[in-house]
Structure formats: C-alpha cells, structure tokens
Amino acid sequence: MTQTADPQSFDRFALDYDRFVSLLPGQNTGWLLGLGLKGKRALDAGCGSGHAVEALADSFEEVVGLDLSAP
C-alpha cells in the first residue's frame, strides 16, 4: 500500500508553524548559516514560511523560496 501526503496539509498548520518558529529567532536556521555557504543563487525548495530564505539573503545575490503551500 502506497501512502501519499496531501500537498495542502501544511496549509492548515502554516500560521501556527510560523508563530512557533518566530518565538526562537535563528534556532531553525543556525545550522544552515553554520555551513558558511555563499554564492550567486540559492534555492530553498519547500521553504515553508521562508525563514531560511531570509537567513540566506545576506550570503547570496539571489535567493528563491518555493513552496506548494500558499500560506
């Protein structure tokens, strides 16, 4: 039996997730920034609320966040 996730399942959780992540700024992106990545372009596929996109903006000329969930 193959299970598939509802692509809009995050929609119901998006505002709560963003509120939760905002309580501890940098906590969910600290590991990413610790990698020391730099360059011209970065892509965050499944970016959710865009916290990692925002964090990467200082190290890249262009950062694109892509998510199936509109919220």
TrEMBL record:
Top-level taxonomic group = Bacteria
Q: Where is the Methyltransferase type domain?
A: 43-70
| Any Pfam family the entry gives | Methyltransf_11
InterPro entries this protein is in? Answer: Methyltransf_11 (IPR013216), SAM-dependent_MTases_sf (IPR029063)
Query: What is the protein name stated in its UniProt record?
Result: Methyltransferase type 11 domain-containing protein
